[in-house]
Design brief:
There is one protein chain. About 70% of the residues lie in helices and about 0% in strands. With about 220 residues, it is mainly α. The protein has a domain of about 140 residues.
Length: about 220
Amino acid sequence: MVSIPDVPDASAQLLADLLAWLGPLPPWAGSVIELVGELLLVLVLVVWLRIWALARGADARMMAVVLAVPAGTVLAWGASEALKQSLQVDRPCRLLPSFPGWADCAAPGDWSLPSNHAAIAGALTVAVAVAAWRIGTPIATAVVLVAGPCAAGSRVLAGAHFPHDVAAGAVLGGIVAVVVLLVFDRLAPRPLERLRAQRRAVLLLGTAPPRGHRPGR
């Protein structure tokens, strides 16, 4: 069992075993894994843009949920970064006894716990999935529920984080997203209705839908 201070033994051992299994990968493998993770996040953002377009013709509560996505994501990143600076747990590349040459190593001072990428992925997954489900696009919901966690998990496959770093980041991001969704759902609709009455806000927020209209169905 691999034992590292400030790192759960099971998490350290799991990453060590995974990287040993992936050891024969070519030098460019780490960059490819990271790129795939980034593209999965982009896919989630594309889904969000589609939902935003649909929400422009939906009621103000739906638009409030859509606007909670970027707010929750930014706050999740901020909370993750604050925890990183407080905990200051180093990256696997400097803590594991052996580390593959194909995996990139972040600069010293770029801490590991929790994973910022996973916090962003967790917030996006929860918020965009909720928005997609509420607007009535189950396929988009399924895409997000697959792409988001895979984006977070790619950070472990790339050797950038221990598994518990990613799990902690994803849970943190998800919790922040839920809180922001609840706040926006409760407080944002009325201000959004007033903004929609102003011509300059129509492009961003759309207009109130005809009675009985349900976009996305």
